[in-house]
Amino acid sequence: MSNSALVQEGLALCFPTSQQIASEFPLPAPINQRHYLVAGELKEWQGELAPVESPVQLRDEHSSTLSTITLGATPLLDATAALTALDAAVAAYDLGRGLWPCLSVIDRVNHVEQFLSAMLKQRDKVVQLLMWEIGKNAQDAAKEFDRTCDYIRDTIHALKQQDRAASHFVIEQGVMGKIRRVPVGVALCMGPYNYPLNETFTTLIPALIMGNTVIFKPAKYGVLLIEPLLAAFRDCFPAGVINVIYGRGRETVGALMASGKIDVFAFIGTNKGASDLKRLHPKPHRLRAVLGLDAKNPAIVLPCADLAATAKEVIAGALAFNGQRCTALKIIWVPRAQADAFNQLCVERINQLKVAMPWQQGADITPLPEPNKTQHLDALLQDALVHGASVQNPHGGEFIGSLYRPALLYPVNASMRLYHEEQFGPLVPVVPYDSIDEVIDYVIHSDFGQQLSIFGQDSAAIGPLVDIFANQVGRININSQCQRSPDSFPFTGRKDSAEGTLSVEDALLQFSIPTLVAAKHNAQQIDLVKSMIKERHSTFLATDFLF
After folding, report:
1. Angle between helical axes of 138-165 and 198-209 (0-180°, round to 10)
2. What does the pLDDT look like over 479-508, one tens digit per residue?
3. What is the pLDDT of residues 1-26, one digit of tens each?
4. What is the CA radius of gyration of the chain?
5. How far apart, in whole angstroms, are the C-alpha atoms of residue 288 and residue 511?
6. Is 179 helix (H, G, I), strand (E, B) or coil?
7. Which of 383, 379, 374, 349 is nearest to 364 (CA)?
8. Residue 450: strand pairing partners
9. Domains of the chain
10. Which of these, 216, 211, 235, lies nearest to 36 by C-alpha position?
């Protein structure tokens, strides 16, 4: 047997046979979903279905052959069905006169709290599907669900705080005014496959709670896990307020954007995808966009860095969830004189990572959900090898089926695809530098500007870099990996990495607009306004204080 065949056979043993699947995380019963949510009804789709396949593959115990597990299917809706959902959202908003946009803040909060209670009952199902659909390990799958619930609670708290601040009147220059934030209109929310629950809900929940009506299209992968929540969406919100569609984005989302009736576009994906969809909107000046896009976050190791501590943080930042995070560290800059020592420390960290199935204790590297992703990563690796890089860690870059062993590549240079492209997977490119000006030039001229990390112990070396990079990226991390949390911090980016800002409070601002009611500050107008408040003639002017 050839060495390549031996390698593949050895890696294939990481996949389970049907008898080896853990009893606590059994293969879920197939979900052949035909329902989608429109206008408060779970409508049944009679057309074609899109199969949903798990990145976890089954191994034949005799031949080590891998076979695909089909988890179920989802409706492959067409443009007509998508536009029916749009009509429902438009009708529910009713040019700002609908029930939902006119509800008081506390009433909308009550609906969201009802949804949260219903969602919590589906925790086990959603966590199980996160593992089987996208290969997320058990601990991270549970963490994603729980963090999403915390985000909903924090959003409710932030909105109450916002409304408390807006409960009073402002008097300036003889004019009294009441300022409140009101919804924008119809929102289209689309999330990514790597955090199909959490990242999606960081736009979906703020859009809803601010009074917008929503069309929600789940991610291409990690789509079945929304099915347990459909009834909760239906039961907890008025008809047409939340509509859930499925299908090919080119057909469904293209039709929605081309209609010109989408007011807010919340999208987490590639900058090319976002640009293509935005161009379809006939009235771009009316379209508000909230976008989380590509990133090529660098780690900058300074000569004064603690190499052992830095290697630990860098490998965690580069390879958590297989590197499938927009916030992952995707290119590592190291002083040439320290590169060998740093690489050896990184290799030691990589060697400690466990390649396993999502339900197995301590699983670090798990199957990748995107079809042909391992071949794509191998193409990036082979290109780097051709242009002078070497794989530093034993067995790095070995793959079979949907499993790919992490590879540390050095020295990486500008002639390689991996220097420029976002790998979104377990490849760790290390670039040697002789002058910090080389790193500065890379960051300044990069198409991306989400985050970066600086590692060092000398404040005189770090401080000037903070000032330079503050105008290049949305977040600078000192001696820590790039990340989104805590959710109270702004999450944004520059260049092709983002549009708009997301944090618990910022998201509420993205999906709303301040509106002012003003009158002259005199006795007659004061009496008029008081009457409207006392007699409850206006929800907007109410001065209720939310506790």
Report:
1. 20
2. 999 999 999 999 999 999 999 999 999 999
3. 445 655 666 899 999 998 888 777 78
4. 25
5. 9
6. strand
7. 349
8. none
9. 35-292 (3.40.605.10), 297-486 (3.40.309.10)
10. 216
